[in-house]
Q: What sequence folds into this?
C-alpha cells in the first residue's frame, strides 16, 4: 500500500487495499483478529501505522527522494501469503470499461480467480 | 483461453474472473480481452496486488473460491485442459531458428504443466462442491499458500513503489525498486517478467537495467521447476 504520509493513513483505505480492518478488538481479516495497543488508532483517528506494522510484521519501505512509503504485507500471523482462507475484498477495474468490480459480488457462485498477463 | 470451459461450467453455478497483472495498463492487455470477448469479468491489476493478497508468483495462476467467499485452493499454476502456449511451441524445430531464440524455445519446451489434471480437478469441484477431494480445508489452504518472509514482504513493497513511480512517469526510479524486489524475492516471476518486459518486450533478454533475464533465470532454477507441480 502506497503511503504519501504515514501519519495520515485512513482506516477505510487500509481496509480496501490490505484487507485489514481496524475494529475495537484489533486488526481483523476474516476470522483472525490481532489486538493493537491503543486500539490501533492515533489521537486524530488515523491508523497508527507503526504499531500496526510492528504487530503484523509488515515492512514500511521508504523512498525519501520521492516522499513516498510503501506498507508491505503481513508476515507475523501465518508466515504465508494467506492468513485466513476467507477471500479478502478485492476490487479492481474492468479492463474494458475501467469500472471497479468487486470479486465479492460473485458470492453464491463458485469462482476461479485467474491471474494472467500480456507479458 | 478460459471461455470454452467457462461456458461449459457456468450453468452449474461457476464463474471465471480473469485478472491481468499489467503495470503497463489496459492498453497492454485489452486487445486480448476484446479478441476473446468473454462473458465473464475481466479485470486489471496494475500493482500486482494479487501477489500480495493471494500469493501469486507466476502466471497463469488460479485461486478457487466457494459460494461463501472461502478460498478452497490457493494460488497455483492453472490451465484449462490445454496449454495453447505450449501447443504452439510443440511444432517448432529450434534448429531452424537464430541461436538465442532457439535457446529460449528449448527451455520453454522443458516447462512442465498438467492441463488435463487441472481441468479434471476443477470440473470435479464445480460438480461436487465441498465433497470434492480437490477442495481443501481452510487450514490446508493457508498452509499451501506461498511462504511470506520479511524479505518477500519487502519485495512486495518495493515492487509497488516501482509501479507507482513508473505510472507517474519516473521509469528510472522504478527500475531501482524493481531491482530490489528481484533481489529480495528471486522466485517471484511476475515482478521479474513485468520489469524485464519494459526493457526488452517478449524476449526479456539481457539488459543493463537488471542482473537477471528470462533465459538465465529459468536455466538457474531448471525450466522443469518454472511451474511447481500441483499436488492434487
A:
Amino acid at each position: 500500500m502506497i503511503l504519501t504520509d504515514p501519519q495520515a493513513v485512513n482506516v477505510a483505505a487500509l481496509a480496501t487495499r490490505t484487507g485489514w480492518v481496524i475494529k475495537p478488538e484489533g486488526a481483523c481479516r476474516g476470522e483472525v483478529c490481532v489486538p493493537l495497543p491503543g486500539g490501533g488508532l492515533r489521537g486524530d483517528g488515523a491508523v497508527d501505522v507503526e504499531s500496526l506494522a510492528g504487530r503484523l510484521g509488515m515492512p514500511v519501505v521508504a523512498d525519501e527522494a520521492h516522499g513516498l512509503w510503501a506498507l508491505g504485507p503481513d508476515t507475523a500471523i501465518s508466515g504465508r501469503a494467506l492468513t485466513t482462507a476467507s477471500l479478502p475484498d478485492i476490487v479492481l477495474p474492468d479492463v474494458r470499461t475501467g469500472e471497479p468490480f468487486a470479486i465479492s459480488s460473485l458470492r453464491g457462485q463458485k469462482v476461479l480467480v485467474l491471474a494472467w498477463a500480456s507479458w | 483461453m478460459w471461455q470454452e470451459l467457462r461456458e461449459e461450467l457456468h450453468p452449474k453455478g461457476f464463474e471465471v474472473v480473469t485478472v491481468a497483472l499489467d503495470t503497463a495498463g489496459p492498453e497492454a492487455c485489452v486487445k486480448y480481452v476484446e479478441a476473446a470477448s468473454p462473458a465473464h469479468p475481466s479485470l486489471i491489476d496494475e500493482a500486482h496486488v494479487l501477489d500480495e493478497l493471494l500469493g501469486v508468483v507466476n502466471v497463469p495462476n488460479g485461486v478457487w473460491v466457494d459460494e461463501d467467499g472461502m478460498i478452497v485452493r490457493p494460488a497455483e499454476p492453472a490451465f484449462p485442459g490445454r496449454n495453447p502456449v505450449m501447443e504452439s511451441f510443440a511444432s517448432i524445430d529450434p534448429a531452424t531458428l537464430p541461436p538465442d531464440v532457439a535457446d529460449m524455445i528449448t527451455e520453454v519446451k522443458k516447462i512442465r504443466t498438467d492441463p488435463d489434471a487441472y481441468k479434471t480437478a476443477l470440473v470435479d469441484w464445480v460438480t461436487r462442491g465441498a465433497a470434492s477431494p480437490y477442495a481443501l480445508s481452510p487450514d490446508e489452504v493457508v498452509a499451501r499458500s506461498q511462504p511470506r518472509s520479511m524479505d518477500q514482504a519487502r519485495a512486495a513493497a518495493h515492487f509497488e513503489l516501482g509501479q507507482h513511480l513508473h505510472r507517474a512517469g519516473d521509469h528510472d526510479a522504478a527500475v531501482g525498486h524493481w531491482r530490489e524486489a528481484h533481489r529480495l524475492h528471486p522466485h517471484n516471476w511476475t515482478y521479474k517478467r513485468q520489469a524485464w518486459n519494459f526493457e526488452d518486450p517478449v524476449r526479456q533478454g539481457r539488459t543493463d537495467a537488471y542482473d537477471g533475464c528470462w533465459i538465465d533465470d529459468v536455466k538457474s532454477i531448471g525450466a522443469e521447476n518454472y511451474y511447481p507441480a500441483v499436488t492434487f
